[in-house]
Amino acid sequence: MLPEAVAENPDAVAIENADPEAIEEARFDRGETTLWIRPEKIRDVCSLLKAEQGFERLCAVTAVDWYPMEPRFEVVYHLHSIRRNRRVRLKCRVGGEEPEIDSLTSLWPGANWYEREVFDLFGIRFRGHPKMERLLLPADWEGHPLRKDYPVHGYKYSYKDE
Amino acid sequence: MNEEGAGAAAERNETARRLMVLNMGPQHPSTHGVLRVILELEGENICAAEPDIGFLHTGIEKQCEALTYQQAVTLTDRVDYLANLSNNLCYALAVEKLLGLEMPPKVQWMRVLLAELTRINSHLVWLGTQALDIGAMTVFLYCFREREDLLRIFEMFSGQRMMTSYIRIGGLALEPPRGWEAMVRKFIRAFPSKVDEYENLLTNNPIWLQRTKGIGHVPLEKLIELGVTGPLLRAAGLDWDIRKAEPYSSYEQFDFDVPTRTDGDVYARYQVRVQEMRQSARIVEQALDGMPEGPWKADAPHVVLPEREKMKTQMEALIYHFKIVTEGFQVPEGEVYQAVESPRGELGYYVVSDGTSKPYRVFMRTPSFGNLQALPAMIEGGLVADVIASMGSLDFVLGDVDR
Q1: Helix (H, G, I), strand (E, B), or coil: what is residue A25?
Q2: B98 & B44 share domain
Q3: Do B203 and B324 fall into the same domain?
Q4: Could you give the ipTM of this predicted complex?
Q5: Are residues B246 and B134 in the same domain?
Q6: How far is CA B33 from CA A113, A134, B26, B160, B236, in A?
Q7: Neighboring chain A residues of B352 at a CB cutoff of 8 Å
Q8: Which residues of A are less than 8 Å from B53 in CB distance?
Q9: Higher pLDDT, B158 or A157
Q10: How far is Cα B248 from Cα A147, in angstroms, rounded to an integer?
Q11: How many CB pairs under 8 A join A and B?
């Protein structure tokens, strides 16, 4: 059953019709639609939105860390349809010791760097990504800086004595 | 052929097909920052290219989480240092959307005016450096002459030439200075004739045409899938501009065209950006002529600092001032994604608030990051010399890529 907030949203209805299990939760706030998708369904939902709902652009992929909640991460996808002038935000909750989710690089090659960035800064792995390596930080960096349990000044250096 | 001969032939063949790996950058002048491109060459032809980024990563998104909302404004300047006011504007709009603040008309129009001057500023740097990379030095000097005037205007407004932080949450940082109108009008009157000067030097210049026509072509569908936005898409034939499609800060009240071309090569991108400069000048003129009267900041005492005079005479103003400066203002829980058309394409700020006075998460969807992913598609199969033309036409800022 679709939540009331998005019951009239054509994109949410299309997802619901294709797979009633896919949407966990939905919200319409400040003119923006957010749909929480079950993480194992994200690839199917995105390929449906791309093929049938005209979302030809993956605008960005990022994540939010809700530490110490579990599952702690939300992977956030911003999809955009230029033709229909619409935007939708999809979110997947992932957690555990080794957070993982399917990669979207086969649908949008542009997802490549965004997913690598999320891996680099949050430590979430993307299954099926052609090059799951650090993007911005050096290859031997320890830790994932955008996690909430990573201090702003890092672990290694102390500024106390200076 | 005997066995020995076949072996030698195979070896010769192997030598002929041997690839050379060339490191371009990170300190190559045409990378305009610190970008490293790993090129695999067969003779002069590029078989594979891979950009390597991150040399300018300063963790701006992480730093934002440690600062209050109004302190983080100064970091947004440093993301894209050629389009600082576009970044200020996008961040301010996102936080204002979270706060539910409506800006007075004068603030909206001033922001449009400043954002368009920023676009001209950024395009001037792009045009000058791209021409310089390809070998036309005069254009560079002309462009920087006009840019100097613009930087003086920004300095007049904010006291800073580049890191202005002039657009703040809830309005502007300061009252627009005395004499700003005359200064901007003088610049904008003369500007179209300056653009004619650049075009005289380049548009029909045979060397320029040879170096840019048909270079770096990528089909439109592929560009969209790679996450490219802005002038690059418009040069490939897509009529999409966020100022028209999702107007913000009262852009719907301005009359301007969205220039497009269909060739999708370096020359088309040049034409689109030059036309955009002319359109921006049109918008600035309209903003000057119709500038509404009224306050230059919103009537929101819990967000905007009170005036000095009021602080000395009114208790409430003093309390608000103390609270904003010491603990910041609280922003209601929620999340927004605000997109604006920066000189380079779609600039988006995704701000998540947990109800405190510091942002829980600020994600910057920077246009250069998305655009740079298209570099391999542009240069693979081409010549080494054309890499520089293609890179220039992408118009990336490495601070914007690495954040």
Answers
A1: strand
A2: no
A3: yes
A4: 0.90
A5: yes
A6: 19, 20, 8, 22, 26
A7: 64
A8: 135-136
A9: B158
A10: 32
A11: 86
Domain containing B258 equals 60-402
Give the integer Cα–Cα distance in Å for B128 and A22: 51
Which residues of B lie inside 8 Å of A (Cβ-Cβ)?
53-54, 57, 59, 61-63, 65-66, 97-98, 100, 224-228, 238, 240, 245-246, 334-337, 339, 346, 348, 350, 352, 360-361, 363, 365, 369-370, 373, 402-403
**Domain A10-161: CATH superfamily, name plus number:** NADH:ubiquinone oxidoreductase Nqo5 subunit (3.30.460.80)
Domain range list for chain A: 10-161
What confidence tens digit (pLDDT) does each residue in B314-360 have? Answer: 898 999 999 988 988 899 999 999 999 999 999 999 999 998 999 99
Task: Identify the pLDDT of residue B4.
Answer: 55
The pLDDT, as a whole number, for residue A67 is 87
- Helices H, strands E: what count in chain A? 3, 7
Please indicate, yes or no, whether residues B355 and B384 belong to a single structural domain of this protein.
yes
φ, ψ for residue B75, nearest 5 deg: -75, -30
Give residue-wise pLDDT tens across range A4-20.
777 788 888 888 888 88
B34 φψ region: left (φ > 0), alpha (ψ -120 to 50), beta (else) = beta
Same domain membership, residue B172 and residue B40 = no
pLDDT tops 70 at residue B69: yes
In this prediction, residues B80-105 reach a mean pLDDT of 92
Q: What angle do CA A156, A143, B31 make, to 5 degrees?
A: 90
Chain A residue with the nearest C-alpha to that of B374 = A110
Return the structure tokens found at A10: 């054509």
Do B240 and B304 share a structural domain? yes
pTM of the model: 0.90
| pLDDT given at position A23 | 85
Q: What is the pLDDT of residue B14?
A: 57
Q: Where are the alpha helices (DSSP H) in B297-366?
A: 308-313, 315-327
Same domain, B200 and B251: yes
